């Protein structure tokens, strides 16, 4: 079972690869379309351990709470709700339970795709790359836990 650092590093690597791959696939690459796959790769790699009461999880919850508050005060109640929901759901499951399952990874990746396209108005290609980066990061977590 790997610790925080290998999961983070592997997720970041996946994100960098996805970000590089996104440049020729997007009509007009922006900072958001390049940085988002990096962030989602890391998020995917760290999500399965969000149900642990560790220091890194507490930091992640604080980050999500801050993002949610930002969305709330910029009148993006929809994004505030989704961000808060994403950080609260893991609290209701045991470690290595539903949050660690393949189906949760797929559901999260699909939800991310729709959040990016419908709420943040990303191009379909950019949202797909970010979602695949998330799912790949998620699956890398499961792989590293087996090593």
- N- to C-terminal distance: 6 Å
Radius of gyration: 15 Å
In total, the number of strands is 0
Low-confidence stretches: none
The amount of beta strand, in percent, is under 5%
> Could you tell me the mean pLDDT?
82
Structural class by sheet pairing and helices: mainly alpha
| Helix-residue proportion | over 70%
**String of helices and strands:** HHHHHH
What does the main sheet amount to?
none
Q: Give the overall silhouette.
A: globular
What's the tally of helices? 6
Task: Describe the SSE topology.
Layout (H helix, E strand, L loop, with lengths): L3 H22 L5 H16 L8 H19 L3 H12 L13 H18 L4 H23 L1
Describe what this molecule looks like in 3D.
The chain is mostly helical and 147 residues long. It has a domain of 101 residues. Helix content is 75%, strand content 0%. The chain has six helices and no strands. The longest helix has 23 residues. The protein is globular, with a radius of gyration of 15 Å. The model has no long low-confidence stretch (mean pLDDT 82).
């Amino acid at each position: 079972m790997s610790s925080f650092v290998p999961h983070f590093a592997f997720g970041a690597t996946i994100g960098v690869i996805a970000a590089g791959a996104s440049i020729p696939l997007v009509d007009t690459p922006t900072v958001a379309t390049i940085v988002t796959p990096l962030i989602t790769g890391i998020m995917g790699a760290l999500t399965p351990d969000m149900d642990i009461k560790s220091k890194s999880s507490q930091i992640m919850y604080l980050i999500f709470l801050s993002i949610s508050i930002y969305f709330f005060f910029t009148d993006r109640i929809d994004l505030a709700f989704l961000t808060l929901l994403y950080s609260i759901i893991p609290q209701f499951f045991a470690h290595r339970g539903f949050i660690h399952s393949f189906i949760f990874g797929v559901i999260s990746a699909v939800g991310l795709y729709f959040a990016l396209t419908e709420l943040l108005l990303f191009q379909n290609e950019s949202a797909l790359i970010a979602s695949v980066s998330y799912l790949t990061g998620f699956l890398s977590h499961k792989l590293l836990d087996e090593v």
